[in-house]
Amino acid sequence: MPVLYQGDSNMILYPISYSPSALERAFDVSGTTDILGVPALIVLRKDKTAAAIVYAEPSQEENGELRHLVAAKLDLIPRKSTNQNESILAVKRYWESKAVLQVEGVVVDRSVQDTRVATTLYEHLIVEKGLILMSDHDQYIGGQNIWKRIARVSKKIDVFILDTESGRFYPYDGERTRYDCESIPESEIWSLAPDESRRGIVLVAERAAE
Length: 210
What we know:
By secondary structure, this protein is an alpha+beta fold. It is built from 4 helices and 14 strands. The chain has a domain at 3-12 and 72-207. A hairpin with a 2-residue loop joins β3 and β4. Mean pLDDT is 85; it is low at 9-14.
């Protein structure tokens, strides 16, 4: 994630939606929430390769088909390439009993970007489902902003900075410093493409210590 690219997303542009049958077939409903007072479902794909917040009431399209509109979506991967496999193994050394998933992409509907919907999705997966989420090595500016917002405002999640090449957390002296957008210099985390000097750095989000 720390290598930043210009643009809003590395995923499909909105609108994204699911038919009721596809939602029932591929996803489990793991929670509920609301978006500006409108009921919504938090869903997790059965194979844990995606999670989303969708509007509970399907909308009817012009062709008469019913679709659940997606407010926020994460693409999740347990591993994809050699580098990402090594990254996840580095994280698992700290949480042997936890499920660690890498966030390959995140998209939020522009109309609800200021409603905390992405933070709600992250908090649900981490606090309620017991997952550890790790950023990707490549990230667009929009995804960086979501991670920074979560680190700054969430009381339920702690975000740490991991150097996957050494397998150590910042400040790399055996301790861990919680990232809150002020505690760690931004230059230690992000590099702007084509500079890949921070490619080995990822952000790791876990349930906040009580």
